[in-house]
Design goal:
Number of helices: 9
Strand content: 25-35%
Helix content: 25-40%
Largest sheet: 4 strands, mixed
Radius of gyration: 36 Å
Strand order of the largest sheet: 10-11-15-14
Mean pLDDT: 83
Shape: elongated
């Protein structure tokens, strides 16, 4: 019998990893090697079983502790009396067996006992959806396409081929559990373990359904029109409850998690629930003041720019920002003034500007006057 691989190596994690790291690694590999995604691939099917076996042990704190101490011998149900190796302590018994026998009976059953035939919740489905800036700001409806596991139409979820049905497991007689006796230093101990033949389901499928390969579920592609929440931001996720994978054995369905990516807008930038945009002014508009048109997410509005407005000045338009998600109120819009310098002037226009320049002095330019005053003070300071 080939030697089993290290469970941590199977899942690609380090010993001592967190539960979240373990779950993330398992979900990635289980999805990669799932039989539904690799039909007819025996190597992928074997890898899928190997990954599930590793996760079943390492996700259980008690089993993981025994595995870390004794290796496979600490969690292997076939490690019976007379075996040797780590954990035998010279007596040829399974430490995990004793742990289950004593502590399992104290809490009303074996710590290994599970009910694979009971209702199990379906897995969550994660998808990404790209929307525009305006769609995120104001909300919209979108048609999404996703895949999820559903009951196989061919076998109606039984996993058995048409004309056949699952049969009672001959090993456990439909109970899903087998009785095992083992000789230990404390005497002969008898306990229940998950039936190896049926995996605890109490039923075996002799002729699997060719459509789902005996799994009872298939991955189908579905389309659905969803409401995008008003004010949702880039990389935020909204949840559609009960739209994920259908549960096994009449268990509840998982959720559909939709994460949005928001395309940049040519006019607006988002800062939380506030919006920022730039408005270019001419030299005359900034100097004399003017009524200008400012774009907002609700359309164009008019704004009076005061006389002597400087480049970089920021004006605030209250309640013109992004509406709060699932709440009342909204952010503000900040308008940043930029100054556009004219190009391609003719001779007459240039002369007019020279005449204008000659008619002004430093008192008309506050920043220019301040700059030269500071420069003069710096030069005088160096001379001293």
């Amino acid at each position: 019998m080939p030697e089993k691989k290290d469970y941590y190596e199977v899942l690609g994690v380090q010993k001592g990893c967190s539960d979240d790291e373990l779950k993330k690694a398992y979900r990635k590999l289980a999805k990669q090697y799932h039989p539904d995604l690799n039909p007819g691939d025996k190597a992928a099917e074997a890898k899928f079983k190997e990954v599930n076996e590793a996760y079943e042990v390492l996700s259980d704190s008690a089993k993981r502790a025994r595995y870390d101490q004794f290796g496979h011998a600490g969690v292997d149900p076939s490690y019976e009396a007379g075996a040797t190796g780590p954990g035998s302590a010279g007596y040829g018994f399974d430490m995990g067996f004793i742990f289950d026998s004593f502590f399992g009976c104290c809490f009303g059953g074996s710590t290994r006992a599970r009910n694979p035939s009971g209702p199990m919740r379906g897995g969550d489905v994660d998808i990404n959806l790209t929307i525009s800036f305006m769609e995120a700001a104001k909300g919209c409806q979108k048609e999404i396409t996703f895949q999820r596991l559903e009951r196989c139409d061919a076998c109606h979820g039984s996993g058995a081929a048409a004309g056949t049905s699952p049969e009672t497991c001959p090993d456990c007689h439909g109970t899903g559990q087998t009785r095992v006796q083992q000789r230990t230093p404390f005497g002969v101990i008898q306990t229940s373990r998950t039936c190896q033949r049926c995996g605890g389901k109490g039923k075996v499928i002799k002729t699997p359904c060719p459509s789902c390969n005996g799994m009872g579920r298939l991955r189908y592609t579905r389309k659905k029109t969803v409401d995008i929440p008003v004010g949702i931001d880039d990389r935020q996720t909204f949840v559609l409850h009960g739209e994920g994978d259908h549960g096994a054995n009449s268990g509840p369905a998982g959720d559909l998690n939709v994460t949005v990516s928001v395309r940049p807008d040519p006019l607006f930038e988002r800062e939380g629930f506030n919006v920022r945009c730039e408005v270019p002014l001419t030299f005359v508009q900034a100097t004399l003041g003017d009524e200008v048109v400012v774009p907002t997410i609700d359309g164009k509005v008019k704004y009076t720019v005061p006389e002597g407005t400087q480049p970089g000045t920021v004006f605030r338009l209250r309640n013109k920002g992004i509406p709060y998600v699932n709440g009342r109120g909204r952010g503000d819009q900040y308008v940043v003034v930029t100054l556009e310098v004219p190009k391609n002037l003719d001779r007459k226009q240039k002369q007019a500007l020279r005449d204008f320049e000659a008619a002004t002095s430093d008192k008309n330019y506050e920043k220019r006057k301040s700059f030269f005053d500071k420069l003069k003070d710096a030069i005088n300071g160096e001379e001293k």
